[in-house]
Write a structure and sequence with these properties.
The chain has five helices and six strands, in the order ααααββαββββ. With 196 residues, the chain is of the alpha+beta class. It has a six-stranded mixed β-sheet with strand order 2-1-6-5-4-3. A hairpin with a 2-residue loop joins strand 3 and strand 4. It starts with a helix and ends in a 25-residue tail after the last strand.
Amino acid sequence: MTSSQHIYEVRPRKDGRAAYVLTIFKSVAAIFTAALVSLNAETTSDEDAVRKLPQSFCNAWAKHDGHELAKIMANDVDFVTVATVYLHGKADFEKFHVRLLSGRFKDSTITPLETTIHFLNSKMAVIHWSWRIDGDKAFDWTPRPPRFGMMTMVAEKRGGAWQVVVAQNTNAMLGTPPELQDLKTPIAIPGTPVKP
């Protein structure tokens, strides 16, 4: 037998060393497998929590409760409305939405349509979600027809909870821009080409 064969060959020894090494190997493999299962479960629960943010936004909106709406926002949130109003901080976000939802939008409903999520790392994710709003009024209080749009949120896991740290809300311009020809969009807004 050559010396290279001894490297690959495991022979049981009278002192039980091979059995000991095998037991250690099995233990390490079991710990590694348990860690992977735990990591996957955490990722799944994080994805579920992030995916629920748009629905939580819509649920609070349905109650016309700006205080409830603010609960998913971080204290230092930067939020841009469809009217290009830039709100900084949870306090201003909350005050604005309390006024909005008890005023021109008190009869409105917002419905999430489609959602995509992109994790930047284990504690930060980008959420794009399309929506439809009905029952809101313009600045002059005239009723508006149903509108569609898309919100982009950046969420961060802080203190074990996912919070929105940045958001941009955008009204859709219905129709298909010629530049979109032959391009596929992950979320198509109603009135634009159907997604592939």
